[in-house]
Fold these 3 entries.
Entry 1:
Amino acid sequence: MTDSRHQTVSVLALNPAVDISYEIPQLIADQKVRAVKTYHHAGGNGINVARALAELGTPMHCCSVIGGESGDLLLRLLGDSLRDGHRYFQVEGETRLNATLLQKNPPSQYEIDSLGPEVPAAVLNDITNCFLATCGNGIAVLSGSLPAGVPEDHYRRLAEHIKAQGGKAVVDAHGPVLHQALEAKPYLVRLNRYVLEMTVGRRLSNVEEVVEAARDLQQRGIELVCISLGAEGAILIDNANSYQCTAPRVRVQSTVGCGDALVAGLVAAAHRGESLQAMLCLGVICGSATASHPGTELFTRAEVDEASFDLEPRTLDI
């Protein structure tokens, strides 16, 4: 258990989005389909993590990039959900508009991520300085894709700065951005099973193989590695042991934002100085509750506080 109750939590959102989700009966090629329901939410990985932390009552700061009329819409959708903890930097161009198609028959989910606006070097410098200042020696969340104008080693360099000033970097990324960030030996890395397979270059057919691959990552000098497994819950690994918490059964409406909610649960519990098992349980509850909502609608604090899930993390001894 690590006592981090005095620390702040800062979230970097370099590539936010307005998430538009459509519930449709069936997607048919060359045919117009009418949405049964349409949802608009403020999204992107960093914004989702910040929203979830605010919902959990965790003191946090969020630094984001906003562009154009779609950026204005994102701010309206956010409302006062981030309270006074949001500092945004405006750029030319338009904040991303992402689309999710939630098909009823057969049940399927299709996601389209658009490109965000380019971030000029001067703005990147300003938001980086703001983020590092608000983070201090606390927990810093680096989550999501990088827009044009941001080098792929940016998370690595930030993680190194954060460690040097006594903070703890949490990384949720993939591809070259993740590979670079791992070199900085961050405090916590969150991957899903597919990203882990792409990272290690092989298929992982069972939980034991997932844990062994995650253990190899952890032994590179990373304090905690979390692997999300969908209905199988998630795994959390430290230097001493590994734990699995199976997800409670819920009626899944959308999986968009579940990984971000998981990260927020892990970070919120770490901020309170709770044990690894408690971190894992809260993360899984937040992710599972989010899956029961449509679009990118996240869990509510009431759902977490009133959760009747009897979750008991299993020690894997791997």
Note: Residues 9 and 59 are 7 Å apart (CA to CA).
Entry 2:
Amino acid sequence: MNNRIPLLTVALSFFLLAGVIAWVAVTNSAHSGAPNAPTDSPNAVAQSGPGDQGSEHEADTNATQAQASSQQPGQSASRSQPDAADRAEATPKAFSPPSRDAMPDDEFGALVRKGEQIFTDTQTHASQFVGNDLQCTNCHLDAGRLADSAPLWAAWGMYPKYRGKNKHVNDYAERLQGCFRYSMNGTPPPRGDEVLQALQAYTYWLAQDAPAGKKLDGAGYPALDDPEQKPDFKRGKQVFADHCALCHGDNGLGQRAANGAVAFPALWGEGSYNWGAGMHRVNTAAGFIKANMPLGAATLSEQQAWDVAQFVNSHDRPQDPRFNGSVEAVANQFHGEYSMYGKQVQGKRLGANSSPSGAVDD
């Protein structure tokens, strides 16, 4: 009997020790926050107040870390690797003007439509201010809508601005007046004239939702790098014969339809832009040609664009409206390295025998 009591005591001690060990294990598991522990309920998050925002942010962080750790090696968490849809949404879209059928059907819409008519058929709707055979849309394609052809929607938000051409800040109305004076070789419409008002209304409408003061993609004409070879008259003449003469005529004076209307504009001569127009600069013309010509199939290389621009602008055209009696003085004051004005080409000094411009002082 005395021997049985110690054995019973030992057995009871082992049993109690096992129970203590099990209790300690359960307690540690509860405090350690096991990976498979259930998360807070949605109601708990929804009911958290301003003082709980830090804990909510920490829970989000822990959730992100748990998600990252569960992915295969080489993968990143979904938050740091947006899918294709997210990337497309984050990429800014190129600006697009409103469609023609979106013009408002009210008094303002009537003025907008008038502006579009003037722009596309300047010879009919603004003939009193035009001194050549051009339309506004000859240099600003698709009624001023096409990117990389000096679209109107990209111009509106950039004015007022300082222009080196006339050495002062211009508003948009004055910019339009300059187009009539130089590109149209005409007389600038006076402020308040319906022609000027309609063109402003049309431009404003095209530029709806475009940011002001920011140069948009497709604005103006592309700025080309200087060519590998210096622009060459002879090479340009061949480019013209191969790619341009079909529309603009072998003599570059344009072509008319059966009813007498101009079908393709003159590139030099009395019916073209004068020596003050921006297009007379070889670099400007090269950018326009590279992006847009031949019409509908702009396939020329940059070198070809430079060469044919040199060729086109090496022909005489109406005089610079700023002419003061001296080609040399005007060339030095207003014409830079990309201008052919005042230079000797094929034995003639360009500008020396130009017909008077159709513009008047404004």
Note: The domain at 233-349 is CATH 1.10.760.10 (Cytochrome Bc1 Complex; Chain D, domain 2).
Entry 3:
Amino acid sequence: MSNSFCGLSSQGGAREVLIARRLYVGLVHYPVYNKRSERIASAITSFDLHDLSRLARTYGVRRFFVIIPLRDQQKLAERIIKHWTEGYGAVYNAFRKEALELISVFSSLEECISIISENEGSNPVLIATDASRRIARGLSYVEARKMVDSGQPLFVLFGTAWGLDEEILKRADYLLDPIESDAGYNHLSVRSAAAIIIDRLAGKATS
């Protein structure tokens, strides 16, 4: 996978804002929990790769990392990415090609942090997401938005299956406040949760 980094935008002043932002997203497939709170490696899904890469491209995320140590799952992800960036899919849908080119597949969180640090010249601030409030060091969306706009490198981590393992939550610098509603139901897919969160962190401000 390519490890080149760039700020992405469509035009004008928006481009300057996106270049100033140094936002990265990670989709963690290991270590995560299953419904019995056992540590597992979850499976890659095509939906996640397509939708989250399009999300990343839309909001100027510099790189979308997929973290999975299982070689068969890495090959699956690589095959999907290659089809849309080099194969027939690249010709069929240039917009999808542009999005999937943002994906890099690595075996561990530490590898991703190393790549970001090498490209940015400093370690990224790790911001974990979780549907509960299991760990302290909570971070509000207002505070997180200020961090994004300040230009410091940030690495936002999303868990698959039943959420990020405690090991990663403790490794993170901050735990972002969970998405909450008045309905008493808190079981969004990772794609839905990521879309809400990234829009709050990097979307256009509304009056």
Note: DSSP finds nine helices and nine strands in the chain.
